User: Which sequence fits this backbone?
């Protein structure tokens, strides 16, 4: 801090308020550096903000600025690069800078109180989780659940959050020698060695490690082609140059297994995980260690893209196509796109990896803006891609939702001692409860959606707004008592399967069965250990998990993605089915995938069966170019919700009137959202499409000040730049 001279100084502070401006405050004490966190009065409140600029006079600002109350030095001043990244995001997504900075910071630094970093505590971990699990009987599932977590280091506080008794058990296991303890930064897990790379992998490694400066790569590698192995060996070389690496992954992929794989490869290298499984303090501690340059690897989800990294040397975005990289509320940013901007800003290479790249990245690679690297074979010698078979279900009698061929294949796999996955992306017992007499269906009173029957809990639940009610005993329209569940959900499958597979251990893994912390990891550990024969899983299970014994996958109800109003639905379905199929036969055992479909003639399935994403991506990109859909042009979507649809539509009409028509700018009419009503409000949207992102930004820059000044009572509106759901 610089001692203040005679001049009256002012600070322009970014505050987390919904106004697109900075706020002037007088400096009466020491002058904070730009990027400092300060405490200021705001109306009747005291809130914290970040200094973005220092000035000698505040002439442009109305009134007499109030004084800054305190400089909070629990946070070192944010580096200029981070502030500039936030400025870019604020501008590109048209969101207030103060709110962007607030979103980029760990929660503790958004509050007006001072954060006290806790003294480093010992962490506990198992060098060999499998060995630990062998010590714990299967009739102690809670203990096994905790044990499965110890693949990654846990503090006593984190353990207590897993289970009330977890800390007690861990002390015992530690005494018995099944666990190790160390200061977090000094964790030395059982090291895993580099694998000898195959020719393709070596070539990719050479390309990645040879890159200097801003160099975007699209790593297109089939599932199991050894992308992660290449990341690890690339990271090793970046670390050897004394630099930090940022690795972004979809939330659902950050399992203890993956974190453990990273820690094992780099024992003793300080690593910061940043994801929603951590509490606010842990997040802040990890984030600070990255900012100070201590953590060399940051492994995190979407939000980690903002982490200040003074020695950033490379960015990796795994599963870059994953929709979870796009935040769908508040600051609607794409962490993948922000990561690319950041790599350019920091002049470092960035790798976007996927077996099914987004069409956006595909287009960038085709246009040579990204360099495409390919891994076309499975890395484990002898492992081949699973065979895919379509099972047409039109006019075919199904047995509890399963095709007889699927049943036969399941029996055969189980007889060989292998595991089976039934992929059914629909939790609950059945998605519809219907009256057999008059056709009435149970619907949510707050949403344009049906209620899902959860038979175990004897409840009807809305999966959109969380509303739930007891099961209706009779049809409210005709009084008929015979209400029928229609369609398959995971619970129903779980209930009917034992009839066909007596004595087999069946495990359901979906959001309901894993809602408590640690349950997912425990379930995964059960699958890994081989105690489970049949897994029934939703999307949660599609990604990232590597089950050695799993050879056979049956996909039910795949068709929902075809014939959708969303032009990205097929792209998503291809990615999802590829990932699901990728679960089968990852090692020596050959895999087989059965897809039950009512549309086996659909061209989509022909391309899926061809097992080659490239022709699908080429065709899709061509279609987008013909039909002027993104990435062939740039979209922005205004959304509005209100008690009545009319109000939302009229607000959007007013917004539309603020946008000056231009040639090549497509200004649609406001329309009702596909799902009109959600959580009690009615929703509408207005799409604008421009020829390029530059043109789109110019249009928005010009129109938004006028739009912001509109009086739109009862209406909440938002802007989504590059929307991925329309
Ligand atoms: P991806 O990230 O592309 O899905 P992974 O890196 O997870 O692929 O590799 C898939 C499997 O292949 C893992 O079990 C991994 O240990 C193994 N593997 C990766 N590279 C090699 C290699 N060069 N030789 C042998 N096995 C490998
Ligand atoms: Zn009825
Ligand atoms: Zn609802």
Assistant:
């Amino acid at each position: 801090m610089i001692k203040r001279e005679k001049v009256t100084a002012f600070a322009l502070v970014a505050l987390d308020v919904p106004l697109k401006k900075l706020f002037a405050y007088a400096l009466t004490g020491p002058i904070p550096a730009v990027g400092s966190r300060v405490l200021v009065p705001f109306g009747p409140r005291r809130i914290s903000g970040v200094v973005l600029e220092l000035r000698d006079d505040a002439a442009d600002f109305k009134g007499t600025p109030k004084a800054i109350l305190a400089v909070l030095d629990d946070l070192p001043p944010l580096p200029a690069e981070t502030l500039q990244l936030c400025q870019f995001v604020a501008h590109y997504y048209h969101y207030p800078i103060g709110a962007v900075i607030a979103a980029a910071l760990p929660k503790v630094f958004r509050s007006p109180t001072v954060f006290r970093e806790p003294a480093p505590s010992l962490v506990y971990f198992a060098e060999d989780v499998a060995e630990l699990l062998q010590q714990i009987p299967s009739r102690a599932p809670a203990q096994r659940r905790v044990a499965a977590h110890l693949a990654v280091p846990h503090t006593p506080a984190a353990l207590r959050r897993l289970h009330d008794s977890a800390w007690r058990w861990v002390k015992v296991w530690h005494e018995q020698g099944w666990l190790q303890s160390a200061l977090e930064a000094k964790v030395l897990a059982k090291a895993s060695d580099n694998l000898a790379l195959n020719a393709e992998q070596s070539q990719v490694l050479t390309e990645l490690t040879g890159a200097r400066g801003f160099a975007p790569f699209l790593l297109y590698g089939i599932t199991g082609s050894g992308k992660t192995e290449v990341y690890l060996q690339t990271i090793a070389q970046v670390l050897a140059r004394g630099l930090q690496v940022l690795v972004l992954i979809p939330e659902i992929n950050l399992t203890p297994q993956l974190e453990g794989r990273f820690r094992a490869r780099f024992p003793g290298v300080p690593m910061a995980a940043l994801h929603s499984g951590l509490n606010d303090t842990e997040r802040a501690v990890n984030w600070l260690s990255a900012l100070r340059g201590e953590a060399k690897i940051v492994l995190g989800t979407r939000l980690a893209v903002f982490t200040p990294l003074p020695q950033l040397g490379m960015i990796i975005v795994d599963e870059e196509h994953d929709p979870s990289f796009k935040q769908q509320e508040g600051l609607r940013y794409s962490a993948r796109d922000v990561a690319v901007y950041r790599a350019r800003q920091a002049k470092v290479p960035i790798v976007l990896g996927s077996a099914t790249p987004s069409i956006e990245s595909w287009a960038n690679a085709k246009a040579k803006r990204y360099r495409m690297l390919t891994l076309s074979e499975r890395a484990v010698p002898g492992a081949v891609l699973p065979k895919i078979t379509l099972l047409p279900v039109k006019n075919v009698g199904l047995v509890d939702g399963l095709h007889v061929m699927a049943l036969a294949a399941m029996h055969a796999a189980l007889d060989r001692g292998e595991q089976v996955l039934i992929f059914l992306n629909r939790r609950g017992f059945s998605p519809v409860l219907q009256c057999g007499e008059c056709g009435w269906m149970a619907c949510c009173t707050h949403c344009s959606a049906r209620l899902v029957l959860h038979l175990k809990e004897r409840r009807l639940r809305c999966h959109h707004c969380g509303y739930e009610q007891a099961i209706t005993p009779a049809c409210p329209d005709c009084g008929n008592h015979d209400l029928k569940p229609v369609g398959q959900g995971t619970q129903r499958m779980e209930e009917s399967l034992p009839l066909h597979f007596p004595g087999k251990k069946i495990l359901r893994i979906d959001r309901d069965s894993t809602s408590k912390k640690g349950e997912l990891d425990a379930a995964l550990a059960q699958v890994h250990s081989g105690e489970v024969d049949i897994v029934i899983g939703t999307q949660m299970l599609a990604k990232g998990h590597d089950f050695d014994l799993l050879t056979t996958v049956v996909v039910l109800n795949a068709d929902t993605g075809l014939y959708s109003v969303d032009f990205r639905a097929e792209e998503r379905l291809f990615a999802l089915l590829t990932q699901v199929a990728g679960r089968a036969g990852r090692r020596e055992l050959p895999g087989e995938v059965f897809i039950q479909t009512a549309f086996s003639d659909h061209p989509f399935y022909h391309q899926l069966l061809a097992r080659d994403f490239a022709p699908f991506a080429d065709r899709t990109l061509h279609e987008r170019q013909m039909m002027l859909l993104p990435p062939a042009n740039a979209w922005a979507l205004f959304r509005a919700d209100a008690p009545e649809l009319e109000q939302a539509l009229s607000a959007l009409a007013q917004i539309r009137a603020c946008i000056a028509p231009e040639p090549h700018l497509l200004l649609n009419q406001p329309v009702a959202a596909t799902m009109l009503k959600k959580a009690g409000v009615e929703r509408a949207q207005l799409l604008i499409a421009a020829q390029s992102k530059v043109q789109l930004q110019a249009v928005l820059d010009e129109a938004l000040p006028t739009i912001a000044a509109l009086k739109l009572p009862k209406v909440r509106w938002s802007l989504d730049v590059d929307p991925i759901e329309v």
